[in-house]
Structures are given as C-alpha cells and as structure tokens.
Amino acid sequence: MSFSTRLNAVADGCRTFAGDVACGVFAAARSGVVLVGVGVVASVLTLAAVPQLRHASEARLTEWLTARKVAALGVTPELTAVERATAVNPRELTGEQLRLTQWISRKYRVAPEPVAALVAEAYALGSEQGIDPKLILAVAAIESNFNPFAQSGVGAQGLMQVMTSVHSDKYAHFGGEYAAFDPRSNLRVGVLVLRECMRRTGSVEGALKWYVGAANLASDGGYARKVLAEHARLEQAARGVSGSRASVKTAATRRSPVKVAERAGAEVS
Questions:
Q1: Going along the chain, which residue ranges are E strands?
Q2: What CATH code would you report for 90-264?
Q3: 13 Cβ contact partners less than 8 Å away, ≥ 6 residues apart
Q4: Using CA atoms, how far apart are residues 137 and 116, in angstroms rounded to an integer?
Q5: 131 phi and psi, to 5 degrees?
Q6: Quick check: helix, strand or coil at residue 258?
Q7: Max Cα separation, the chain?
Q8: pLDDT-based confidence at residue 264 (cuts at 50, 70, 90)
Q9: Which of 152, 131, 111 has the alpha carbon at shortest distance from 227?
C-alpha cells in the first residue's frame, strides 16, 4: 500500500472518530437537557398537586429575596406600605375637584396627591350627608391648615380638630381613638359631628358655632365668618375664578352649603 493510500486511510479514520465523538457529546447533551426539562416539569406538577409544598416553596423564595433586599438596602422592604398612604393621582379627579386640589395645594403648601384624596373623600361624604364638600374642606382648612397631625391646647385632634375624647364612640367604628390621626377617618368623623350640629341648629352659622365649642357663648370669636370666607374662596377656585379673595360675602351667601332637606334626617349614631 502506497504512502498516500495509508495517509488517506488515517484521515478517514480520524474523521470517523471525530464524528462519533461529536455525536456522542450531542446525544449526551440532549439527554441532559431532556432530563433537566423532565425534572422541571415534574417539580412544577408536584408543586401544583401539593399546595402546602407550593406555599412552603414560595415562602422560602420570598424570604430569600427579602434577605437579599435587606442586605442590599439596609432596610426591610414593605411592598404593601403604599396601601396606607392617603394619596391619589389628581388627574383621576373631575375638573372641579382638580381645580380645588391645585388651589389648596398651592395655598397650604401641601402635596397635591394627599390633597386630591381628601378632596375626593369630601365630595363622597358631602353626597352622602347632604353637605357641600367645599364647606367640609373649608372647616379642615380653618381648623388644621390640612395638617392631619394637628392638636389644639384643649385636645382637639387631626384634620378636622375633633375632640377625640368626646367622640370616641364615633372613632370606634374606625378601630379606635388613634384613627383620629388617619386623615380619611378624621374627615368622616368630623363630617358626622358637623352634620349633628346642623341638625341641632338648623343653620350653617349656628352649626359652626356648635362645632367650634361656642354653643353656650355669646360669640364664636369670628370662627363661622372665617369658615364661610374660606368656603367662598373654595367655591371660586372650584369654578376656576382668578382672584378668589374677591366678593367673599356675596359668594358665601349666594348658596347655602347644606341641603335643608337633609337636616330632618335620622340622628347619627
């Protein structure tokens, strides 16, 4: 056999060997992938069939991810914390509510998102209780300047400066007296108190005198006048009227902030 013939034979043998090795490696890799896929499918089916095992696995994974975040951030994440925030997107409000939100936010230097939540709440409560929502907002403005953590020298607390000790029965519906510092709960209790005062007196001015605690006094110290002046400004802001300090008396007396028919309703518990 010539040298070239032997060389060709060696080359053919090498190619055959390399091909066999490649086929073996490919077959092994494919088998490995298949085994991994089968394992994943089996694990998924097992987790789906055994809820307790699935929940335990999810809990361990959550704990592991939380531990990683704590290590990276130095604080414990609480993804549900946003649910406690009193805030909404102002763009979700009606045009009138948005104008009020923007005006209150500028005047009282508070963020528009929590103001938007309070404006929306005031409108919902006003519809339920038959009270002009702008009157509700005017009381909050004069009482606390929209500070939900405010407290007076006599113990009135929160956004609407409700006497928590006197109206603890109302706060019981919201989990207890500490709800006085939850803006929405305080707003709701304040509106209940305001409506009770309206039923007692039959007028907005009289109700405001009772609300501020001056029922047995000769004068409320100008409280009702301040609230009604702010109410007038809020009405102008809601309409988009510039210069909302003008014509306070006319705007305040043009329309009553309470529906007279609602004053004859059932007593608030």
A1: 156-157, 162-163
A2: 1.10.530.10
A3: none
A4: 11
A5: -120, 140
A6: strand
A7: 133
A8: very low
A9: 131
Give the amino acid at 102.
Answer: Q
Query: pLDDT per residue over 62-118, tens digit each?
Result: 676 667 766 666 777 777 888 888 999 999 999 999 999 999 999 999 999 999 999
Nearest to 224, CA basis, from 209, 210, 244, 202: 209
Residue 78's pLDDT is what?
A: 77
In the numeric block, the tokens 């004859």 are attached to 264
Dist CA 250 CA 229 (whole Å):
10
Q: How many helices (H) and strands (E) does the chain have?
A: 10, 2
Token duo for residue 62: 């959550």
According to DSSP, residue 156 is labeled E
What span, in angstroms and rounded, lies between the C-alpha atoms of 9 and 85?
A: 81
CA distance readout (Å), 104 to 56, 60, 152, 211 = 49, 47, 22, 22
Nearest to 237 by CA among 98, 92, 89: 98
pTM over 0.85, yes/no = no
